[in-house]
Amino acid sequence: MIIIPMAGLSSRFFKAGYTQPKYKLEAHGKTLFEWSVKTFEDYYDSEKFIFICRDVYDTPSFVASEINKIGIKDFEIVVLSSETRGQAETVFLSLDKVPNDLPFVVFNIDTYEKEFKFFETQNDAYLEVFKGEGEHWSFALPDGNTSKVLKTTEKVRISDLCSNGVYGFKSKEIYINAYIEMQRESMGELYIAPMFNFIIDKKMSVHYKLTSIEKHIFMGTPTEYTDFLGTDNV
Q: Please, are residues 193 and 136 in contact by the beta-carbon 8 Å criterion?
């Protein structure tokens, strides 16, 4: 199962003068929604997709139209009536649609990853990472030269392993328990990456899957979007 939370405010785009949410913007003949979901095009026929959006800017109708256009077979659209405290809460509010023991992957609506494949290493939770620069990512601290994760952070650079926004969970119970613990301690925005620390604290198996930054197109800020518009190799 693949869960796509898209209940964010697109605030940076509106502040930059755009008049519609970023997922409705177009680049190279596709909406940014289609580019992001294209990450999973090998799974359009085999996986169920859950899209979580708000009832603003005619988004539910837009999502349904885009899904039908690209040919996803099995999907559900969860419509929220109000803002959430962040991506972690948005996903949490959809988990009644997920069977108890079904693994699922979460991804954002502003990144396209080429050649995506599910992580086959046995784990209770995992995140995809690439080696990158800067402080504006979520980070994973590895256990030596293994793929085991010792710690995750949000915008605090503890390694060069930067999250690309793909998060996998063995079951919704694992997600829910970590989310409940995190939201008890956090007063701010609720990100998914810090949840992994609560899973690690329970001695569960958390790993990272290394991918290449060259396989990604980032579209989450106005600058990234305009850079994408100027890219020829897509």
A: no
Structure-block tokens of residue 216: 């990604």
Torsion sign across C-alpha atoms 115, 119, 125, 126: negative
Question: Count of CB atoms within 10 A of residue 116's CB?
Answer: 20
Full residue range of the structural domain in which residue 182 is found: 2-229
pLDDT single digits (tens) 100-120: 999 999 999 999 999 999 999
- Of 104, 138, 116, the closest CA to residue 209 belongs to 116
CATH classification at residue 154: 3.90.550.10
Is residue 173 in some structural domain?
Answer: yes
pLDDT beyond 90 at 187: no
Which backbone phi and psi does 75 adopt, to 5 degrees? -155, 165
Give the pTM. Answer: 0.96
Nearest in space to 195 (alpha carbons), one of 204, 217, 136, 9: 204
Q: What is the DSSP letter of 128?
A: E
Q: Domain for residue 33, yes or no?
A: yes
CB 168 within 8 A of CB 105: yes
> Which tokens in the block code for residue 60?
């539910």
For residue 187, being part of any structural domain is answered with: yes
pLDDT band for position 186 (cuts 50, 70, 90): confident
Token digits of residue 22? 């970023």
